[in-house]
Structure formats: structure tokens, C-alpha cells
Amino acid sequence: MNINLDLPTLLATIADAVIVSDAHEKIIVWNAGATRIFGYSEAEALGKTVDLIVPERQRHRHNEGYSLSMATGTTKYGDTTLRVPAQHKDGHILSIAFTVGMLFDDHHQACGVVAVLRDETERFAQERALKQRIADLEKTSS
User: Fold this and answer.
1) DSSP character for 51?
2) Exposure pattern of 50-63 as b/e (b: 16+ CB <10 Å)?
3) C-alpha to C-alpha distances, 114 to 11, 24, 51, 101, 111, nearest whole angstrom
4) What percent of the chain is modeled with pLDDT above 90?
5) What are phi and psi for residue 92, nearest 5 degrees?
6) Rounded CA separation 79/20 (Å)
7) Span 24-42, average pLDDT
8) Three-state DSSP class for 104?
9) What is the mean pLDDT of residues 75-102?
10) What is the largest CA-CA distance in the chain?
């Protein structure tokens, strides 16, 4: 059996969003999963900054962290799943979970970031509703 493992095929078949951005936060890879989750086509996203999906109130913090990662070649989130808000093309806010990895050039200088993202909006809403239900039950039993 011969399995086609070329990168474009892998990126096209994964349901999660795969986004790669360069040292200046410009998006250089945007797969079909990213289009499905965020609403932007590949053509709309390529060349734009990651701010495309970062909600306005988180942009400053995100940009500072990204710049620091590029300057130091490290990220404190390398082996952690992050859960943060993100913004869809139509403006509604999503709850996403993602992992991130640093990319390096031939001289071992940080040159970009790869992120694998998943939409957890529905799960987050269910979890919030369950917590509220528990809080309401605790109030009525006391």
C-alpha cells in the first residue's frame, strides 16, 4: 500500500485549522479547516496578519507575545493547549483551543509559527451552562 503523505494533501484532509505565519505575523499557510472555522477563504487570509482572527481587545497582548517569541525563539505555550477567544469573518466570537510551535530557519533563527486550532465554541457553551446549573442547584439547596 502506498499512502500519499505530501504536505498539501495532509493540510487538505485535516479538519482542524492549520495556520502558519511568518516572523511578521503574515499568514503563509491557511488550510480548508481554517476556512471552515473562521470563514475566510485561503485567498482572503494569505498575506494578512493573524489579527484577522484575533478579537480587538486581545490584539495588543497577542502582538506583544508574538514579537517576544520571534525575538527569543521560544514560546511558553509550546506543549500547552491554549483556550482563547477568536473572531469569525462575520464578527461573531468563537472559543478555540490550539497548540503552537515555533519555526526556525537554517541559521536557527525564529522565522514563524505554526498553530493547529479547533473550534470549541459549542463545548464551551455546554460547560458554561452546566456550571451555571450546578451553581443554581447549590443556591436552592442552601
Assistant:
1) G
2) bbbbbeeeeeeebe
3) 12, 13, 15, 5, 10
4) 68
5) -75, 150
6) 17
7) 97
8) strand
9) 91
10) 64
Amino acid letter at 86?
A
Half-sphere exposure of 5 (CA within 13 A, CB side): 3
Nearest to 80 by CA among 115, 51, 105: 115
pLDDT reported for residue 49: 97
- Assign 78 a pLDDT band (cuts: 50, 70, 90): confident
Looking up cell 491554549 gives 82
Residue with cell string 482542524: 16
d(C-alpha 71, C-alpha 48), whole Å: 21
- The answer to whether the beta carbons of residues 80 and 87 sit under 8 Å apart is no
Distance CA 41, CA 44 (A): 5
DSSP single-letter state for residue 80: S
> Residue 91: left (phi > 0), alpha (psi -120 to 50), or beta?
left
